[in-house]
Amino acid sequence: MANFSEWKEESNTSLDTDFELCTTSRSPVSRVSLYVFIISGIICTIVGNLLVVLAIAYFKQLQSPTNSFVMSLAVADFLVGLVVMPYSMVRTVEGCWWFGPTFCHLHSSLDVMLCTASIFHLSCIAFDRYYAVCNPLVYTFKMSRKSVALLIVVCWAVPFLISFGPILLGLHELGVEVPLPENVCVFLVNRIYAVMASLVAFYLPMVTMLVAYWKIYKAAKRQAMQINAMEAQMAAGVGKDSSKKLKHRNSIRRERKAAKTLGIIMGVFLLFWLPFFTVNIIDPFIEYGTAGVVWDVFLWLGYVNSSLNPFLYGFFNRSFRRAFLMIMGCRICLRGSAQGMDLSHSKRDVNERTENQ
Q1: What pTM did the predictor assign?
Q2: Residues 117/156, Cβ–Cβ less than 8 Å
Q3: Which membrane topology term applies here (predicted)?
Q4: Domain residues of the chain, as ranges?
Q5: How far apart are CA 27 and CA 319, in angstroms?
């Protein structure tokens, strides 16, 4: 993605000249530095999301409706790191596309599909947390296995429909008359596709998440007042069944902590994806004048969101953190390791429990 006015002026340049330009546009030192930096990010994306998938698949304690969305999200982010980011890296560093026009369309389709699927899963997680915190009495009914499975199917089906269909049929570039060199892979879209795809892939999920987290925030604030009142009652010795109240208080606190964690994930999501989708809508209306470096920076900011999600889970969620440590230490490979062990225990408790089995 580069300044199309410059490409248009140079559209008559031969393929050999274009190849030479794109391979010498950066110094060897800057290219190596970029490769090292981006490859490190790709490895973090792949390994981090793989840890999430393995943790949820292995430990029964992590197998919940919310974590079904988290696992499917991790699969989408894992595929972003595995099949999208490496080719985007070469395009960004070298300034040209070496893999042919057919794979260019396939790569663009996968890019749109997987990034959109990642965004859809985040909105489903927000929807799930809304019912868990704000309507706990109907949560089990609303988030049954069938409902969760249906939502996950939607999270994959809709991105597939807005990516592979229009892109492979060329509908996204109808009416666009901008000549490009043969060795450039640019996701150039018309105004209709830019607006519609951005609305479906980003802005509608964004509104869903903002509404859900606003309602969660208000519910958490109300529950905090209940906790304060309950603690005051317990401190005065008025409560007759303090154990039940303590259990209820801890349950509410866990839900609030989960909501806070997902709120941070939401903030990170907006920070890294909002610039790209804003420019994505504006660019067709300014005759594709956005500079290539701006596209690259905003696109890679979006990719970073796929890298950060598993680390946010590991940092804020104790159970995930325990599971990650056990997987990285190959503890799940040992005889006697239990899928149902309590990941909320301390590391010493986990070790003693494993040794005694």
Answers
A1: 0.82
A2: yes
A3: Multi-pass membrane protein
A4: 4-316, 321-357
A5: 46
